[in-house]
């Protein structure tokens, strides 16, 4: 007697947010699936605002409807929302709906002793070295570097080519702009905005916006 064993279908994956960041995650996730790093079927996007006509068609995807449809879908979710505060709000709204899928592009380098929370996103050419702790729904954009002994809080966004040197602390919901550099041992609070290209040489308090070289608080 021959027994035919069925192979479980790969999970459906839905990206929440069809803006630019969400579409970049579609590319990263497609690359990861293509490289055999993870199994899944990219079902499409949900967003309360319908995307521009043809925008998703050109990347081979579809808009599934507003976020309300997620209650009817059996899918893992990727939060494709760039702004930390908005991402945190959507995560709270969707608590208990679907799994939380990590996105790690095949070119990402992750060293030993690195722990990442659910919903972790690392786009192309990210490097995370050693003894690093990363919270939930942290998004590391292209060419980001996170050095040794760093702690990165929940819902943090590091924009392209941002650098955290060794032993840096970053609080929850903070955004670090493109090309910004945080020097070794610096602590950055929660809900902080670090401008693009800034060089952060000193600790930054909660709720502060800093810009420039060296980074200074905006008045």
TrEMBL record:
Keywords: Transferase
Gene3D superfamilies given in the database record: 3.40.50.20, Hexapeptide repeat proteins
Protein name: Unannotated protein
Domain PglD N-terminal: 13-94
GO molecular function, one term: transferase activity
PROSITE patterns, sorted: HEXAPEP_TRANSFERASES
Keyword tRNA processing attached: no
Residues spanning the membrane: none
């Amino acid at each position: 007697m021959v027994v035919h064993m069925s192979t479980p279908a790969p999970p459906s994956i839905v990206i929440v947010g069809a803006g630019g960041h969400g579409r970049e995650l579609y590319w990263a996730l497609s690359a990861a699936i293509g490289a055999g790093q993870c199994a899944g079927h990219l079902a499409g996007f949900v967003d309360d605002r319908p995307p521009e006509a043809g925008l998703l068609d050109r990347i081979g995807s579809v808009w599934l409807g507003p976020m309300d449809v997620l209650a009817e879908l059996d899918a893992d979710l990727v939060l494709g929302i760039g702004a930390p505060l908005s991402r945190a709000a959507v995560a709270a709204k969707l608590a208990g709906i679907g799994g939380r899928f990590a996105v790690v592009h095949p070119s990402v380098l992750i060293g030993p002793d690195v722990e990442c929370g659910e919903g972790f996103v690392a786009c192309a050419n990210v490097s995370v070295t050693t003894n690093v702790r990363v919270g939930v729904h942290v998004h590391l954009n292209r060419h980001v570097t996170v050095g040794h002994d760093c702690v990165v809080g929940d819902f943090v966004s590091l924009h392209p080519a941002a650098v955290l040197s060794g032993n840096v602390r970053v609080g929850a919901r903070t955004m670090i702009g493109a090309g910004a550099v945080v020097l070794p041992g610096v602590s950055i609070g929660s809900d902080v905005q670090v401008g693009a290209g800034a060089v952060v040489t000193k600790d930054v308090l909660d709720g502060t916006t800093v810009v420039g070289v060296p980074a200074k608080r905006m008045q």
